[in-house]
Amino acid sequence: MIIDGMADRPMKELEGKTPLEVAETPNMDRMAKIGINGIMDPIQPGIRAGSDTSHLSILGYDPYQVYTGRGPFEAAGVGVEVHPGDIAFRCNFSTANDKGIITDRRAGRIREGTKEIAQAINGLHLEYGVQVIFKESTGHRAVLVLRGGNLSDQVSDADPKYEGNPPKQVVAIDGSEDANKTAKLLNELIQKSYKILKDHPVNLERIKKGENPANIILPRGAGAVPEVQPFQEKYGLRSACIAETGLIKGIGNITGMDLIDVDGATGGVDTDLDSITTSIVSTAAQDYDFLLINIDGADEAGHDGNLEEKVDFIKRVDSVVGKVMELDNAVFILTADHSTPVAIMDHTGDPVPLAIKGPAVRVDDVNSFSERAAANGGMCRIRGSDVMNMVMDLTNRSTKFGA
Ligand code: ZN
Ligand code: ZN
Q: Which ligand is nearest to the CA of 6?
């Protein structure tokens, strides 16, 4: 169970304590008490992990091998069946005027009608036998997958980042022929999207209502879909993923886990924690060997620089931890995927606390769950890539190295 971005740094406002140390977390503390504790560098000491690269590392995949960019995981997270070699992008639906200038990067924060708009782009065929797969995500977000034609992910972003500019010309980063071809196709597709979408019924309706139309797509974050050994094949574990955000669902999907839909999961501090708990308990009752659980609110509060909300969310997520602790006969690992310090409003490379409870663990003397307390535990300091080895060993599933 990964409480996204929960770890933090000592804060002046908290008299040198961290939000996790200040929040009331009786269940996490009990977890520390009856388990073994340590601190974990998700990737390596000092490396600022993304949520995606950290999760890959914790699941035993080398992110330096399999991570090519955010696009493939976002695409897999919204349910696109991606294939190795596909080039995937994150996209914004944006608003362009008739001179090709982006006037709103988020198309009036469009919420409805994106499915219909996406269908107008999905299925297009481009030069070199390239097929376009395009799907809406949440709000103004979407994913684009280009399949076929020996394309490359070494291309720049089209998003100009600031309104008042035209889409950025996509260029080949490495100057290769495949990347040049990909850049050319993308530039054409962006222009084509405006032609297709400017008079789309959903947009005509939006204009009538005084809302910005979603009349152009802006791809970014290109990544080639990697070859990833399925989790079940790697470990022999039937697994499911209970996550809120497209990115983590994408990790689950690409590694071949079953994705469990959770009603009311928003990925924010307003998420429905009761509903998440219900999903965990009912999924655990099914025939799975391994559950990956990610709850995102603490990370959001950290990115927002909102100390009060972070402390409050950690306090509330503690009850979910309590329910998971009741699951019989399970090895339960509680950790975070990285620190998202309120003061920094982004991820940092600090290690995160980790506690494991289960029938075989050597219980240590740590009595509370926090960044500082965990450093005194029996696991000392580990890396994300150690976690699955320990899971396999603690459940007597690992194979012996040597005679
Ligand atoms: Zn994260
Ligand atoms: Zn984050």
A: 1
Give the residue from 248, 238, 347 showing the smallest Cα distance to 295. 248
Distance 337 CA to ligand 2 centre (A): 9
Proximal ligand: closest to the CA of 3: 1
| Residue 5 alpha carbon to ligand 2 centre in Å | 6
User: CB burial class (10 A; 0-12, 13-18, 19+) of residue 301?
Assistant: buried
The domain ranges of the chain are 2-67+228-394, 74-223
Please list, residue by residue across 203-234, b when 16 or more beta carbons sit within 10 angstroms of its beta carbon and e when fewer do.
beebeeeebbbbbbbbbbbbbbbbebeebbee
pLDDT at residue number 328 = 84
Q: How far is the CA of 81 from the centre of ligand 1 (A)?
A: 23
- What CATH class is the domain 2-67+228-394? alpha beta
CA–centroid distance, residue 298 to ligand 2 (Å): 9
Q: Tens digit of pLDDT for each residue in 204-242?
A: 999 999 999 999 999 999 999 999 999 999 999 999 999
3-state secondary structure of 310: helix
Ligand 1 center from residue 295 Cα (angstroms): 9
Distance CA 309, CA 304 (A): 9
- Predicted confidence (pLDDT) per residue in 61-107, tens digit: 999 999 999 999 999 999 999 999 999 999 999 999 999 999 999 99
